[in-house]
């Protein structure tokens, strides 16, 4: 994979080491020159996109001819006037007053004053990427959507997000993640605006402002930021027990993903697909990540929020830049479109319910690959506007009352956020299909509409544009019968069961996952001040599972209530657990700790093998720079003992020295101890920062390894004795790496939990 390592590998922490391509010995990095004279436009980076190639009315345009800001040779005003000086205001003498006539000063400050737009009211913090979706053709029997056809390739833009935090909040908070995909299909834009959790807190959109008010910081002091661990959130979810299911998912490891690349995505609602013959099928959409579903530990997530609040954003951009393009399969669960719209007793219009995959398997219908980073965060990631009502022929909605409110909300919010009704013309939002609308004028109108008769029918423009029937690709809503019923504000009886599905989720988790759930509830509720709130949550937990309830109650020092009735009898759904399978290790980050004094050949060997295996090797040493003392090809240091934190690595390796006389991996000199080598017992000299690095990684159940003299002592000094679960030592560095990769494919050394989960 990695043609070159991500930015962050070179830059974080500013250790002064020069960029070099790990695993590509001898390739000299390009040197930045001091610019001395104007030059032509800068080429975009390989993983960044060109400007949107479609005009506001959908025609393909030559983007190379378009203006690309800040790439031409001379500075201009917004009007294209070349400027001789942008560093000094126009003044009456160099110490005199600034003149009002300074048009450049006025334009520059005016524009700066208006650079910010309102952040999204929810999902404000996000990161995005461009990509492509390829249909498998397997869905054509149920949907006529052209982009689902066999091998049809459709450009996409995907934005991941947290829900509660502000734009500048940290990435790895405990929260739901948004997973919104814009498909630029030939029939118009289709947006699948989903989350990484398959259910929602509420069953009716009218409560959305309430759940969000409860989850956002308290209105008086505006704390806490980006977290649910506070009284108002738990007050709301305990008073609206329909939220119990979503809350339980949030308290599980799903609430703290390892990476956007390792999350599932869900359309949540039930949608209605329509095929060429007009036949309809109810479906739920699923995104299945090729890398599997993996999470952080809670302590890791908290540390990362301090040491690298951009962790997920960086991870996504770095992976794409390195060529490790993340992939997801789109799948559907299908259900017969009966008048009841239920499946095995589950009301498909209730967004707080899932249908277990064992009952209705997820059938793959296409592949999503993210392969390009945005070239401008504001223009693309910030201005992208999703809307569940952006549909294409072959995909229709159902009467889910949560979805109904969303169909109103998403258009409405863009008016405030993007400043007017023409946001569809912003490059990232432009459809790739021709646009012949009769929408006119308004703020930020960039289309130059032709014709004199923007109304229908007309005779002055020859009747154009004509309406398109289904046969001409027109979007015709499925003529579903609406119920003959009284107008009421009521919830159906079939929505009333709020605990059996959370119970199934709980029972489907492995012991270690359950332990994490208990710890999460206990942590969050211990941050609440009001005992009544905690007691109310415990009452809901008692109806989900008495063990869950009593363990959380113990942690809070409160009595565990009895269930209010008989517990639901449900079978577990193994598909809900994250633990047990093995997954590709592409893009995983392996730290190689060395003092550079000896055994460099082994470091080179392992570094190159990690790179060749599609993972990312980072050499960690006492200081930045390069090692070439053995006369071999230089080894560049990417991290130092001062700036390396265990949370960045999926596994750590200790490069010891070969035993004297050994030529196991060709070292010239033997020296042990990763620190000031002052003699004495090996490991005793080890730099405390290395010990911290290793012991923290051990506590987070990461695979650890080492080879050569001294490595086992260093590991033992850090409390990670060779032979304990997931600690691999051997004289042969390749053998160590092989076992480490095998452990990594299962994400963590689960055997180390629960004992190791106790945070010291
Ligand atoms: Fe929403 C943004 C997902 C219910 C109102 N929502 C937003 C985003 C995602 C979701 C991923 C971010 C899109 C982006 O990256 O720009 N929302 C969901 C899911 C829901 C859901 C999966 C339930 C199944 N949302 C929901 C309801 C309402 C909203 C019930 C209001 C009645 N959501 C919004 C919004 C946002 C939004 C206020 C904020 C920014 C935006 O739309 O463009 O309109």
UniProtKB/TrEMBL annotation:
Residues 1-67 are annotated as: Disordered. It catalyses: 2 H2O2 = O2 + 2 H2O. Keywords: Heme, Hydrogen peroxide, Iron, Metal-binding, Oxidoreductase, Peroxidase. GO terms for cellular component: cytosol. Its EC number is 1.11.1.6. It comes from the Bacteria. Heme binds at residues 120, 159, 208, 406, 410, 417. The active site is at 123, 195. Pfam families: Catalase, Catalase-rel, Catalase_C. InterPro entries: Catalase (IPR018028), Catalase_AS (IPR024708), Catalase_clade2 (IPR024712), Catalase_clade2_helical (IPR043156), Catalase_core (IPR011614), Catalase_haem_BS (IPR002226), Catalase_immune_responsive (IPR010582), Catalase_large_C (IPR041399). Its cofactor is heme. Decomposes hydrogen peroxide into water and oxygen; serves to protect cells from the toxic effects of hydrogen peroxide. This is Catalase.
